[in-house]
Amino acid sequence: MELVTTVARAQELLHAARRPLGFVPTMGALHEGHLALVREARAVCATVVASVFVNPLQFGPGEDLATYPRDPEHDPSKLEAAGVDVLFAPASNEMYPPGFATFVDVGPLGETFEGAVRPGHFRGVATVIVKLLNIVRPDRLYLGQKDAQQAVVLQKTIADLNAPVEVAIVPTVREPDGLAMSSRNAYLDAAQRAQAPTLHRALVATREALERGAQKRDAVVAGVAALSPSAKVDYLDLVDACTFAPLDSLQVPAFVIGAARFGKTRLIDNLWITTSPLT
Ligand code: AMP
Predict the structure, then answer these.
(1) How far is the CA of 278 from the centre of ligand 1 (A)?
(2) Which residue's CA lies nearest to atom 18 of ligand 1?
(3) Which of 24, 158, 209, 249 could be joined to 37 by an S-S link, Cβ 3.0–4.6 Å?
(4) pTM, rounded to two decimals
(5) Ligand 1 centroid to 183 CA: how many Å?
(6) What is the pLDDT of residues 129-165, one digit of tens each?
(7) Which residues are catalytic?
């Protein structure tokens, strides 16, 4: 695996790469969820590129940019073992040199749910991904279903801007107790770690109620009841899987989405629903 830290070297090296070229963007502190994306890419692509870049643009003031988990010691060997050919790990001033001034505005989709709680977040995500696509020029972009709204926002950005890349969405990898793997799980203390799987249970309870034919309002009440009483819910909702527009009752495909705080740690998760309610 070759480690590249500059845009110029990445573009020079990847210009002649064997295709199809698969690309897995990450913020590092890698876990099995990230590596599942790499393995999917490895299975179908001649060249696999991963990036590790903690993108300052997608963190708001008061968010966890400074303390975001980082693991530069172990990330490269994990990526190499999973089959990555090139790791692009630029410094912040390589991506945003002095004078950088162009941003991707993703419109109203960037202002709901995660975007409502984190203003400017998806603008930062879309901006860095468009830059990374221009640097790496992949044929296939691998994204996790774990960040479902991010995946929907980026698919729209790619379609709206005619970026010549295909998007592959990889199912969420979970711990045995159902907790979705996330770099932020490292923030949880033992008591919070024990409560955190109730976010997944809340999503399952909501989905089960919807699949029995419940209206969203009642399904969400059932979901909240499954959540640890010490967690604080930011949202628990049902949305159209393609547009992320809220739904009143189940129409497939849809996502049940949730975000909750366990102490200071904010976790998000979702379930994809493809089965219609029983009639
Ligand atoms: P991050 O490093 O959190 O920005 O994540 C990088 C990519 O990995 C994103 O496309 C995420 O959706 C994906 N990802 C993160 N956690 C998981 C997981 N548990 N299962 C599958 N994909 C994941």
Answers:
(1) 32
(2) 33
(3) 24
(4) 0.98
(5) 9
(6) 999 999 999 999 999 999 999 999 999 999 999 999 9
(7) 34
